Amino acid sequence: MLFKKANTENFTYTVDDMSHEIIGNQQIFFFFGQLLGKALFDRIPVNVSLNHSILLALLGENYVAWDCSLESFRYIDNSVCNSLKFFRDNDLTLFEDVIDQYFVVNKEDGEERELKKNGKSIRVTNENKMEFIKLKCQYIAYQKVGLQLTEIQKGFRSVINPAWVKHLVPDELEAQLCG
């Protein structure tokens, strides 16, 4: 699949983590971006609810520079947001015997990916939990599907000048796309 239902309060679609395995996926995502750009340009509403990670990519947001707040991340993955709120809001020393979290994430294929160099050996503590939250949000929102989002963005920008949408926020872009 190219897209899947996002884990958010509202029904939205996001890029499927495994879509990179589909032959010709880059051209398909590029075309999807063009389709969204053409619909926006011609003011033709599309009946699709896109996840904020896609909308942010269309707006030209760079995931490395994106300052991920958990309030905005809930529009990308609500269940991960809730678990990260636990890390943010609690003293992790009280849970040392229960929580054994390192700077890694598990990919869909079961493989571990380090969020930073030597992440497998860096335990999440009160001192570094905000860095962990930011890195995990960035990975889930963009890095794991970054190539696909880049192709969607390229296709969109082949139709829409980035200056035309640079002042919009995701909700405004969604309203323009969906009518």
What would you say this structure looks like, in words?
The chain is mainly α. The protein folds into 2 domains: 81 residues, Hect, E3 ligase catalytic domain fold; 75 residues, 2-Layer Sandwich (Hect, E3 ligase catalytic domain), CATH 3.30.2160. Helices cover 44% and strands 7% of the residues. Strand 3 and strand 4 form a beta hairpin. The longest helix is centred in the first third of the chain and has 17 residues. The chain is elongated.
Gist of the model:
The protein is mainly alpha-helical.
Q: What is the CATH architecture annotation of the largest domain?
A: Alpha-Beta Complex
Give unreliable regions as ranges. none
Total individual domains: 2
Structural class: mainly alpha
What's the gyration radius in Å? 17 Å
Can you tell me the CATH class of the largest domain? Alpha Beta
Helix count?
A: 8
Strand content bin:
5-15%
CATH topology of the largest domain: Hect, E3 ligase catalytic domain fold
Portion of residues within helices: 40-55%
**Given the C-alpha coordinates, what overall shape results?**
elongated
For this entry, give a set of tags.
mainly alpha, Hect, E3 ligase catalytic domain fold, Hect, E3 ligase catalytic domain, 2 domains, two-stranded antiparallel sheet
